[in-house]
Amino acid sequence: MLELKNVSAGYGTFQALFDVSLEVRAGEAVAVIGPNGAGKTSLLRVISKVIDLNGGEIAMEGVSLNDVPAHKIIEMGIAHVPEHRRLFPRLTVEENLKMGGFIASARSHFDERLAYVYELFPRMKERRHQLAGTMSGGEQQMCAIGRGLMSGPKLLLLDEPSAGLAPVIVQQVFDLVRRIREEGYTVLIVEQNIQQVLKVVDRAYLLEVGQIKMSGSSRELLENDDVRRAYIGL
Amino acid sequence: MDFPLTDPFFWETVIQGLLFGGVLALLSLGLNIIFGVIDVVWICYAELIMLGMYTIYFLYSDYGVPLPLAMLAGILVVALLGAALHYFIIRPILHTEPINQLLVTGGVLFFLQGFATLAFSVEFRNLGVSFGSIEAGDMYIPTTRLLAFIVSLVAVVGLWLFLKRTYLGTAIRAISQDRDVMPLMGVSPGKIYLVTSALGGGLAGLGACLLVLLYDIHPAIGLTFGPITFMVCVMGGLGNMIGGFIAAFIFAEFIALGGFYAEIEWGYVIAFAFFIVMMFIRPQGILGSKS
């Protein structure tokens, strides 16, 4: 579904990604793990074209994204749930969801998708008229994922959904991710919480200083001694 | 001093203030939406209104275009001017120091004023349209002022519904809260800024439709309404449209009642003194947030 070939990207003169190649197949959940500053967020940002692609190829379902501007990426079936959730704090939950379904092709499906998101997250229905900025971190994450689903994406990019949340809430967020998977969405997730994320995905890539160092099934990575020593602390 | 509750002139003054407040509220809308969304103050806002007034005047007086059509054209012309102002002047320097945007629109103010003087001369022109007065008890209310007031209220409600109900309106509110995340929603920030600028211009054009009925047109008319519009916005909390709405009525009543007890000039003196005092007490404006 999504394919990256020898992708390089960065911010101005700072290069964040070197020669990154990876693939996400339809129906899969794939994680990109790695330490802080490895370039995980940059990876999702270059897929969304929010940062410039300096080299290589990105393709979605065989169509090159190289010349697609950032605001057209969502029309290619890719929804990006950004780091720190980035909800519109002074819009209500429902207005945030409406923004998720802003693109022309999503508007005629607004009612049905809203009902779907409310069914998936009943809490959001209770809070639909509440300002998004006044909710707890876990609820905001639900709202952010719901907003991502409103465009009817084929692929969902999740950037550190557990970051900044209390341990109990982190567990709930991974349950959310599992449910999204069960709904049949293809997911590319970036996480620092390696042990947890490897339990909900099929495959993973290890990213270190902007380069892919290892890839394999979640089991392979969980059982790899280097990964265990460096990231899981066992 | 007796409180003149039984004096019909007092009540007439209060109502005049209320009606003037409606006009000020409308004038403040466009400036507020531009600031609230793009974070830029159009110092030349009232000069856009001036150009709208000239457009309506010439179409109606010289070309015989029916007044409603001339007004519609005036709104469109100023909406286009607003979009052009953003595209050619603001956009290239949007990411530089905020003071640059202030200075450049200040430059545009004097450019437009100079241009109007050159093109239209300093002559005072009047549309010469009057709808008479409405008599209510012992009071006389000029119909044009009442009309202006009603149009202002309709515009305020219409704008509110647009911002609250439509996708575009929601995007305009969203972009003021987080610009950088907008592309992930499939929204091009540049486009929303352009649309907002056209909307701000359109509101200035609507202001021109009302002012052209009430006042003489001349190249410096912007200086009469520019500062007070700006102060209404600041006192309400720059970018806060509800605050601007309230401030418009406070200002208008100060001016009207000042005129009732002394001369109208005293009304302006008191209103601006009040503004200065308010800047000490509540610099963020009536409904502005602290930052």
Describe this structure in words.
- The complex is a heterodimer of chains A (234) and B (291).
- In chain A, 37% of the residues lie in helices and 27% in strands.
- Chain A has a six-stranded mixed beta sheet with strand order 6-7-8-3-9-10, with helices on both faces. A four-stranded antiparallel beta sheet of chain A has the order 2-1-4-5, with helices on one face.
- Chain A is of the alpha/beta class.
- In chain A, helix 2 (93-100) runs parallel beside helix 6 (137-149) and helix 6 runs parallel beside helix 7.
- The longest helix of chain A is centred in the C-terminal third of the chain and has 16 residues, at 167-182.
- The N and C termini of chain A lie far apart (35 Å).
- The model of chain A has no long low-confidence stretch (mean pLDDT 92).
- Chain A has helices at residues 40-47, 93-100, 104-107, 110-120, 122-126, 137-149, 167-182, 194-200, 218-223, 225-232; strands at residues 2-11, 14-24, 29-33, 53-60, 63-64, 78-81, 155-159, 186-191, 203-208, 211-217.
- Chain B has 291 residues and is mostly helical.
- Chain B has one domain (8-122, 143-281): Orthogonal Bundle (ABC transporter involved in vitamin B12 uptake, BtuC), CATH 1.10.3470.
- Chain B contains ten helices and two strands.
- Chain B has helices at 8-38, 45-61, 67-90, 98-120, 143-165, 167-175, 189-214, 221-236, 241-261, 264-281, and strands spanning 133-136, 139-142.
- Chain B has a two-stranded antiparallel sheet with strand order 1-2.
- In chain B, strand 1 (133-136) and strand 2 form a beta hairpin.
- The longest helix of chain B is centred in the first third of the chain and has 31 residues, at 8-38.
- The radius of gyration of chain B is 19 Å and the shape is globular.
- The A-B interface holds A 48-50, 69-75, 79-80, 82, 86, 88-91, 95, 98-100, 102-103, 107, 151 and B 167, 170-171, 173-174, 177-178, 180-188.
- Chain A: Keywords: Amino-acid transport, ATP-binding, Nucleotide-binding, Transport.
- Chain A: One of its GO terms (molecular function) is branched-chain amino acid transmembrane transporter activity.
- Chain A: One of its GO terms (biological process) is L-amino acid transport.
- Chain A: Residues 2-234 form the ABC transporter domain.
- Chain A: It comes from Thalassobaculum litoreum DSM 18839.
- Chain B: Belongs to the binding-protein-dependent transport system permease family. LivHM subfamily.
